[in-house]
Amino acid sequence: MKYDISKTTAPKMPNLGHGLESVALLLSQVSKDMHQPIVPMLFPILGAHVSGAEFMYPDLSWKEPSGMLANLVADSGAGKGQLSNIVEAICRDFRSHDDDELAKLVEWQKMMKTKSANKEKPARPDVAFWFPPADVTNAAFIQNAIGCEKLGQRTQYLNMPEVEMADRVCGGHRQISQMMRNIYDRQRAGALRATADGVTGNPTLRANITISSTPFAARKFYKNELFNGTFGRVVFSYKPRQGRDGRIPRQGKYDDDFYLRLDEYLARLAICKGRFIIRPLNRLIDQLAADMASLADLADDDTLWDISKRALVSAWKAGCLLWALNNQTWTKPMGSLVEWLVYHDIWSKMQVFADMLGQDEGSVSEAGRRGPKNLLDDLPDSFNEAQLEALRISLGKTKEGTNAQLRKWVFRKFIVHSPQTGLYTKTPEYLHGVTSDNIPKNK
Description:
Arc Repressor Mutant, subunit A; 10% strand; 12 strands; 3-stranded mixed sheet; 4-stranded parallel sheet; 2 domains
């Protein structure tokens, strides 16, 4: 593990080296202050350009690059609007396709009006909008999902400039949890209904969604979704408030040369079809899963462990898209970016929701933390059980969890126990390997 996610400073994104030329291109017209916040938001957009491809996750399940949900969180005036600019650039082909689909509907409606009441009405044409408007209703969203499933099992993509727009798509705020989980898990809509034309309305939900919001709006919107699995399914990208430097960030222009190069990458996504196993990516995810378990044990933080599981899946899907964009070839810099995506997601969640995440089941006193705290780092190189117990109590953790935490640390070879002295001592591997290179010290 390379990143210290206990600090208020965002984990620094690695250099965009070999294999990440597509990401560098997409950022080329974005102001520099928005590079890191924008990167995690790119993948739901790109994922909607893939249909007919599945990838094997390390658990041996097959997954599509659909169900990708991401929320950009930043204060008002911080530059969130640049996301909509890059969305329009990437989805230029979607707009063209949807214009043709809309023309079909307009023509059908004209024909409907010309038919008298006793004449047979023409059947509604099969249409599928790939980039529906952000204010689409739940009924229209499901109807479009039917069309997308019937016409090539396409993924529809929605970009919502305000988080509250998700209520309309999901059919009300009470349906947010079920709908977003169904989208993430590629489940059926659960809206089976009978009509004059027969039974309809229960398509597989293939949708990718990006959302923009302020920290206040995000906290208000997700406050009831933090512990039911919905929250973990959404990738968060947080931009902290910047200093008052008095300089207006500069954006670039999406010119013909940009679109010519972009279309080459989008074509690589379009031709990616079949089933694939990206072995170096899967090995990386296995390693990151072990790192997340170690970090959760050091912090004795079940919430961190829970949200890390889906952070790994989301970053893995991004890795699958990077592989396709790079002519189905894997590189080391791509692995570095996937690793950063995991930590940036968790860091963002902790920055925006830390106090709220500390309010479940007896953990209220941990409210106000800004990230997972490495408890072992706050202890001397040799310590006894009472010292850890006192540290846990000072942080609002239970006294009863002390022995279990010590056993985990011994099992992971972070510490060794001396029966003669009763002391626990940090191992050389922890002091010189884990702490300095893998698990950052919390100072």
